[in-house]
Amino acid sequence: MEIDREDGRTPNQLRPLACSRNILHRPHGSASWSQGDTKVLAAVYGPKAGTKKNENAEKACFEVIWKPKTGQIGKVEKEYEMIMKRTIQSICVLTVNPNTTTSVIIQVVHDDGSLLPCAINAACAALVDAGIPMKHLAVAICCCLADNGYVVLDPNKLEEKKMSAFAYLVFPNTTLSVLPEGSSVADGEPVEHGIITSVTHGVMSVDDYFLCVENGCAAAASLSAFFRKNFQQSQRDSSKAG
Amino acid sequence: MEGRFANLWRLTVNESKFVESALQSELRVDGRGLYDYRKLTIKFGKEYGSSEVQLGQTHVMGFVTAQLVQPYKDRPNEGSFSIFTEYSPMADPSFEPGHPGESAVELGRIIDRALRESRAVDTESLCVLAGKLVWSVRIDLHILDNGGNLVDAANIAALAALMTYRRPDCTVGGESSQEVIIHPPEEREPLPLIIHHLPIAFTFGFFNKGSILVMDPTYVEEAVMCGRMTVTVNANGDICAIQKPGEEGVNQSVVLHCLRLASSRAAATTKIIREAVEAYNRERSSQKVKRHHTLAKSEVSGPIVVVRKRQQQKKSSGQEKAAEIHFWLWLWWLIVTFWR
């Protein structure tokens, strides 16, 4: 029994993805990421001297500033800032530039569902554009649970409101192995399938949560492929130009 | 925070001397003429009332929203509008997050004064119930990239967003005709705001004690210049606002020269804005026509995720086992009945 989604997608189909980097001139790295109609702009200012008072001065520090489209900054925005800061701290190499602060600024351009995952993806692309050393990328996806137990990926705003529960999941990106056998996932699990961040809304059973995680993991693979293709293409374009 | 001071961008003495001496020979660092503007592009977003303006390297976004509020006591028949400027830390490493600094407030005030005092936006048409409910329009300006001359870019972003904004239609009804029903956009077409004219801001930079005049300064030139002036004019030749915040004094003849330059450019810029808005409106209405023909299912082609079939195999093996059990039970029943 399949679910009928309003825009004609299957439950496992993501919205069209678009990513462009180096769009702003003053920031050291910038990227815009859009999933369907949700669009987020991210900018990174590279390591600046000094850390804040409560931060560990032996490691690099990150600060995230979330700018909503309209209105005052409230608790929701502060929560997003905190989640993103912890996520970015876990993917970046903190020992390379100790006692520095890197700022990541997120500007919401349009919110049509799945906003936090979109922002995390944009921040990753901007960090790559700025050249901040990272262990791997963070690939974020929103999985929601419909009433009949089916998992639906990448909902838009209307679908998010109707669903009984949804989870924002962030995975490390999948590795591409040189050997053709290594990259297949037919038997055994892929090496990195840990969850970096998980934020849930609503009530769901444990089995449903694990089902979401499985679907999210598979989605992370296709998102990682998109990231890779996008970065390689822009590298080829810049090498042609330069 | 002491660490922050180490990060303020400062212009070196060499750079500032270079800019000044180039201007003495009427040359600008990016090769423009003294009164040339950088390339202006106006784009619009998905929603009504969202605009994105790029003036060279300067990047500004404008969003317009409206809500119903009680009117001011001294103006019961008029709606209101307010401008909020956000100097995002994205735009410049020296912009601090938190509440806006002086230049953000000044920028907001210049644009606000030009729109309000010149009555560019018609506020009487925003009245729904006199004395009780009026529309309050809120304009949010986000500065994304500070390449210099934020006032002009932000002004155009505000105007473009206002021109493409549509407010929901509402009717006064109910038993005592005091209830206001707001119609969602699917029911009734939202209405545009009435804008009488477009006040456009032009910023001038003064160098060398006011003797050299430059239009549309970049952020490098802004760090070097000794004075500035912003003139807001419209295409009809009216001066809506002039802002000269102190600094180096300039001669009256220079001020008049600036006014003449600004009014000669106003018509061209107004035309660019109107053309961009018209192109957007045409695209929007052609999209609506398409919606009526199809069954509201757009062709969304995103990546399809392939989930491994482990779970499904588990389910099918379970079903197979159940089928097997059923088979043996049936066989046993058959044997038992035929034995009798």
Automatic annotation (TrEMBL), chain A:
It comes from the Eukaryota. Coiled coil: none annotated. This is Exosome complex exonuclease RRP46 homolog. Keywords: Exonuclease, Exosome, Hydrolase, Nuclease, Nucleus, rRNA processing. It is found in: Nucleus. GO terms for molecular function: exonuclease activity. Belongs to the RNase PH family. Its main location: nucleus. The gene is LOC104711082. SUPFAM superfamilies: Ribonuclease PH domain 2-like, Ribosomal protein S5 domain 2-like. Gene3D superfamilies: GHMP Kinase, N-terminal domain. Residues 13-133 form the Exoribonuclease phosphorolytic domain. CDD domains: RNase_PH_RRP46. Pfam families: RNase_PH (PF01138).
Automatic annotation (TrEMBL), chain B:
The keyword Cell inner membrane does not apply. Residues 37-168, 197-264 form the Exoribonuclease phosphorolytic domain. It is found in: Cytoplasm; Nucleus. Keywords: Cytoplasm, Nucleus, RNA-binding. It comes from the Eukaryota. InterPro entries: ExoRNase_PH_dom1 (IPR001247), ExoRNase_PH_dom2 (IPR015847), ExoRNase_PH_dom2_sf (IPR036345), Exosome_comp_Rrp42_subfam (IPR050590), PNPase/RNase_PH_dom_sf (IPR027408), Ribosomal_Su5_D2-typ_SF (IPR020568), Rrp45 (IPR033100). The keyword Transport does not apply. Belongs to the RNase PH family. This is LOW QUALITY PROTEIN: exosome complex component RRP45A. It comes from Camelina sativa. The gene is LOC104765071.
